[in-house]
Specification:
This protein has 140 residues and is α+β, with helices and mostly antiparallel strands. Helix content is 23%, strand content 37%. The chain contains 2 helices and 8 strands. It has an 8-stranded antiparallel β-sheet with strand order 1-8-7-6-5-4-3-2. Strand 2 and strand 3 form a beta hairpin. The longest helix is centred in the first third of the chain and has 17 residues. The radius of gyration is 19 Å and the shape is globular.
């Protein structure tokens, strides 16, 4: 009986640990990055800048991004950046507000979402499946 319980607990542990991770939480200071982005843009005359984020496994991803306008006039306090990873395998689109950011990136047809963690300053999560109604489509 004891050996059956041990085997059952080992099986349960391996089953839960083998499941694919679908979310990662990381720290990111939006205000600091915006200051660096503005400095870089002044020096490089609207060139690209690098933003470092993470994938769902916690690996760092560097993206080359540049400002994209979503309307004819630039909206005050809203920065939209678009770009790709340094290895050119991922495409990213971010909306950056004065204190927060959100967006998504695409890799091999898989969409990854980035959004702030609620009620926590400078913490963000990257995840695969948004928790929404199945009748709604999301994506870039």
């Amino acid at each position: 009986m004891k050996s059956i319980l041990v085997l059952l607990s080992i099986f349960s542990f391996s089953l839960f640990s083998a499941q694919k991770k679908e979310e990662f939480t990381f720290k990111f200071n939006v205000k600091k990055w915006q200051r660096e982005f503005k400095k870089f843009q002044k020096n490089k005359e609207k060139g690209t800048s690098i933003i470092s984020l993470f994938d769902i496994n916690g690996r760092k991803i560097d993206f080359n991004v540049q400002e994209k306008t979503v309307s004819q006039e630039r909206m005050s306090g809203i920065l939209v950046v678009k770009g790709n990873s340094l290895d050119h395998r991922k495409i990213i689109l971010l909306t950056i507000l004065p204190k927060t950011m959100s967006g998504s990136y695409l890799e091999n047809g898989q969409q990854f979402f980035i959004e702030p963690v609620k009620n926590v300053c400078n913490k963000y999560k990257v995840y695969i499946h948004p928790k929404i109604d199945k009748d709604v489509e999301v994506g870039q």
